[in-house]
Design goal:
Blueprint (H helix, E strand, L loop, with lengths): L2 E2 L9 H12 L16 H17 L6 E6 L2 H13 L5 E6 L2 H10 L4 E7 L21 E4 L1 E2 L4 E2 L10 E4 L16 E5 L10 E6 L16 H6 L9 H16 L2 H22 L3 E3 L10 E6 L5 H10 L2 E2 L10 E4 L6 H17 L2
Parallel strand pairs: 1-13, 3-4, 3-5, 5-8, 8-9
Antiparallel strand pairs: 2-10, 6-7, 9-10, 11-12, 12-14
Helix pairs in contact: 1-6, 2-6, 3-4, 7-9
Bound molecules: pyridoxal-5'-phosphate (PLP).
Length: 355
Amino acid sequence: MKHNFGAGPGILPQEVFKQAAQAVIDFNGTGLSLLEISHRSKEFEAVLDEAVRLVKELFSVPEGYSVLFLQGGASTQFAMVPYNLLPEGGKAAYLESGVWANKALKEAKYFGEVAVVASSKQSNFTFIPKDFEIPADAAYFHITSNNTIYGTQLQQFFPSPVPVVCDMSSDIFSRKINVADFGLIYAGAQKNMGPAGVTLVIVKDEILGKTGRAIPSMLNYQTQIEGGSMYNTPPTFAIYVSMLTLNWVKAKGGVEAIEQENLAKSKALYAEIDRNPLFKGVAATEDRSHMNVCFVAENPEHEKPFLKLCDEKGIVGIKGHRSVGGFRASIYNALPITSVHVLIEAMQEFAEKNK
Ligand code: PLP
């Protein structure tokens, strides 16, 4: 058995894989593969409706918000957000808490002025800056809720005088959020929600249509809202698997129940990192992520042998991102706590052998 700690695409529930595999052969007894049915068929429309309904239910999405399933990944949202929200000659505020935030703000520069309110770049993004002001004349304030590469996560969201836009690619559906606190939320699916190829957007309708700019149809949220995420052929398979995963979240007791499980997993792992003399955490303690746990070996020579031990125990995807080094254990929703225990035991065994 494998224990998948990979950062992305990340682990999805085993039962979702089984249901998805069956749907590829014969979708709900139609005698057709999910991959060959029309996106305009009543069967697929029911899938999309259910996926939207589940997002609304799991996050208690208030009235006045639209839920979209788009293509192009979170990286397309880096451009689509300013295209739709940043008026000509206007300004947008960004918090630079990692490379993904940096990529997002670079795209915004194509459309207007960018005010970087704070950055932790100098410390290789080991913490999330909290001491800054959000300009009240900005069109929006962009943040990244979980910095996948560095293992930092916002434990609380900032009060803001302007609409908050949040990249939740690596912690969507991992914890409770109050959608009303945000103007727009986006997330590439491929960590906690589904396969690569679909991107979730939850947008407050009233913030749209204010730029005075002509926007190409595919990149215009309004077109996508009017088309019900079917302006063109949507990524049917990715939406179907997302729907199955959201159903799995619901069956587990919803986002609150998942959040408790995630806290138990991260608490156990950080406790071992802090206890074990051979390893140390990378991120500032107060910003530690409950999704991506980054740590390094005190002695760099221990890195390779520890990875070898992990390999022997079926622990995969644990090598850290090249810009941080060491190890990164991504403990997304579908990773069972038993897998976290296997990793903890491997760390203990390694410490025992290397006393
Ligand atoms: N934002 C965050 C926080 C991410 O972790 C990633 C990918 O890992 C991205 C954006 C980029 O997502 P995509 O590959 O869907 O464009």
